[in-house]
Write a sequence for this structure.
């Protein structure tokens, strides 16, 4: 079975509190986009499943999130055998776009169809929690308010049609280090998540774009923060209605209502950066065969 695994962006990202278990309670508006990996899932050739991709540095066995998800599905349902997963990577890794989580979610959707389990999207997303906090959203896709660690999802009206430019600068950001720098009590600027939800309900793209915000931007190292701000400024200069960093970064995105302006931003960023993409909002995923 061949499937697409869509990347995600964070229209808002807020950190509410540190929990007793060491994790943080989040409040985020998440959006699937059409930038996607392509996965092929087949019965395993050997005793154990493998995960191979066109990026040689990614793990190939059980440490790959795709195989973690397959094991979680078997444990939860008692259905399905070992599978081999082939991944054509298009989503940059360590980018704040949930590429690994998207691949894991695609494997869950594939196994749900191949085994005839016919689990509901909610049931499948619950299994996805075992593979990672972003996996439940990636199972469902579309647009959603994500709370808790990211696994408590409330579907939202879709982001209005638009053009999205993504740019990943050539460095990675450590998510644990970013969390360690966050003092929840001292967060001064927070996203207007309620306002974004209201704008989505009204179909107001401009209202969404002007409220994009990610609290992680304020705890980046100064030189990284400066580069993120430069990319955001270029996007705005090209006509983006709003721009922000996705997840723990470093990918920056801008929302455009005109394709020509988005194309201009793509070309200008492409002069300095390798990982630049033009995409669009993606809808909800099909989780079963019916």
């Amino acid at each position: 079975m061949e499937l697409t695994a869509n990347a995600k962006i964070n229209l808002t990202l807020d950190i509410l509190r540190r929990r007793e278990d060491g994790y943080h309670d989040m409040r985020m508006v998440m959006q699937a986009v059409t930038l996607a990996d392509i996965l092929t899932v087949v019965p395993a050739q050997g005793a154990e499943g493998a995960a191979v991709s066109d990026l040689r540095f990614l793990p190939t066995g059980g440490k790959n999130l795709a195989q973690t998800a397959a094991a979680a599905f078997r444990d939860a349902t008692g259905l399905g055998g070992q599978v081999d997963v082939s991944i054509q990577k298009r989503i940059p890794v360590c980018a704040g776009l949930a590429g690994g989580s998207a691949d894991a979610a695609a494997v869950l959707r594939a196994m749900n169809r191949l085994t005839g389990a016919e689990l509901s999207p909610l049931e499948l997303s619950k299994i996805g929690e075992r593979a990672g906090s972003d996996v439940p959203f990636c199972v469902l896709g579309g647009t959603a308010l994500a709370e808790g660690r990211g696994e408590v999802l409330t579907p939202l009206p879709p982001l209005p049609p638009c053009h999205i430019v993504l740019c990943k600068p050539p460095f990675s950001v450590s998510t644990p280090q970013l969390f360690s720098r966050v003092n929840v009590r001292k967060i001064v600027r927070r996203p207007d998540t309620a306002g974004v939800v209201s704008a989505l309900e009204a179909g107001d793209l401009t209202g969404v774009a002007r409220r994009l915000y990610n609290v992680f931007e304020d705890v980046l190292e100064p030189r990284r923060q400066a580069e993120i701000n430069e990319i955001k400024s270029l996007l705005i200069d090209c006509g983006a209605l709003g721009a922000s960093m996705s997840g723990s970064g470093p990918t920056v995105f801008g929302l455009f209502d005109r394709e020509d302006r988005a194309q201009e931003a793509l070309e200008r960023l492409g002069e300095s950066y390798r990982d630049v993409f033009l995409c669009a909002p993606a809808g909800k995923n099909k989780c079963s065969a019916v």
